[in-house]
Amino acid sequence: MAENKYLDHLPLERQVRAMKRAGLIIDSQTLWDQIEKLAQHLQPTYEALCKEALKAGVIYADE
């Protein structure tokens, strides 16, 4: 679900409709709740990566 949202740019509402066609009835709020839990789980990793990046003398960005 998160992969569909962030890698394939598939909105949660569209995922809900696809799941409904497959026989799974789920509310988009449930998917948002799962996204929030995933974010909480990944927060320590994010903070560690930021801390490590800030140790570098220079940070490059590809904008």
Main attributes of the structure:
mainly alpha; 63 residues; 67% helix
Give the radius of gyration: 17 Å
Question: What fraction of the residues are assigned to beta strands by DSSP?
Answer: under 5%
Along the chain, the helix and strand elements come as: HHH
**Number of spatially distinct domains:** 1
Structural class: mainly alpha
Descriptive report:
With 63 residues, this protein is an all-alpha fold. The protein has one domain (2-53). The protein has helices at 2-6, 12-21, 28-54. The two termini are 27 Å apart.
How is the secondary structure organized here?
Blueprint: H1 2-6, H2 12-21, H3 28-54
Summarize the structure in short:
With 63 residues, the protein is mainly alpha-helical.
